[in-house]
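Researcher: We plan to redesign the surface later, but first we want a full-length starting point. Tokens attached.
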């Protein structure tokens, strides 16, 4: 159940089937220590090599290291924004955002339309989406008031696992993580601990195509009109007689589930 599910997700970049099945959120403080950097790089690199897609928030600090480490390991990463896709925040991460898209190994995702600027009220919702798109959330380093703890709390509410890397008891930057462990988060000292806890010992490098059944009327309706021939979203809207925003939201979820593929600007084909 995803209580905070947005009506529409805007996506810029390339999605892969693993992105809807084998994902792990990696979050933490913007002002990380050298220990936090080492932990984030090590865990994210190993998780990416285990073919888990890394989901984070494109913020400075832990998020930035996680995205770069995933790509450096030859893995995939999704960056969830708290504003429209026409704005990269913080501006320091413009080159990182370009790298994610241009590498073909990830995407920028937002619940906000073009023109929406960063706002403090948008970040908790962004954190809920990170948790909702992930099988579990790893917090590598976080002080007591870090926004990463909101993501961890949302993960628990949504039935996801929460993992935390222990830090020194005198380290303010690890105080939030240590409290998570006291409250029941899984303490982890390697990526292997996470993979085993999620029962993903053998995450396939290339997931074989399989039939994915539609689970609502909107998906069933669109499947009737989809084929191997590319169709523009406007054609699908007319053929299905559904509202445009419903078609857009449904196609986004179908793409995340591997049911359809986007092969051109707003053009879709059936994926199996």
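Model: Full-length starting sequence:
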């Amino acid at each position: 159940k995803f209580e905070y599910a947005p009506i529409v997700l805007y996506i810029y970049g390339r999605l892969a089937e693993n992105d809807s099945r084998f994902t792990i959120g990696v979050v933490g403080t913007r002002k990380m220590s050298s220990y936090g950097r080492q932990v984030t790089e090590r865990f994210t690199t190993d998780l990416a090599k285990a073919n888990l897609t890394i989901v984070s928030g494109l913020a400075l600090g832990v998020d930035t290291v996680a995205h770069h480490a995933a790509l450096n390991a030859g893995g995939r990463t999704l960056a969830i924004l708290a504003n429209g896709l026409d704005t990269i925040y913080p501006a320091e991460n413009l080159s990182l955002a370009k790298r994610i898209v241009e590498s073909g190994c990830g995407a920028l995702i937002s619940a906000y339309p073009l023109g929406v600027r960063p706002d403090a009220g948008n970040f908790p919702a962004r954190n809920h989406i990170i948790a909702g798109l992930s099988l579990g959330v790893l917090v590598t380093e976080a002080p007591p008031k870090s926004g990463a703890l909101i993501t961890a709390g949302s993960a628990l509410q949504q039935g996801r696992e929460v993992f935390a890397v222990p830090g020194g008891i005198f380290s303010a930057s690890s105080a939030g993580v240590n409290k998570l462990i006291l409250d029941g988060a899984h303490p982890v000292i390697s990526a292997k601990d996470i993979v085993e806890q999620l029962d993903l010992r053998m995450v396939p490098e290339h997931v074989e195509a399989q039939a994915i059944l539609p689970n609502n009327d909107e998906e069933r309706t669109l499947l009737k009109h989809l084929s191997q021939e590319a169709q523009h979203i406007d054609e699908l809207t007319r053929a299905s007689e559904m509202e445009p925003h419903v078609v857009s939201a449904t196609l986004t979820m179908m793409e995340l589930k591997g049911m359809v593929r986007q092969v051109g600007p707003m053009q879709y084909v059936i994926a199996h």
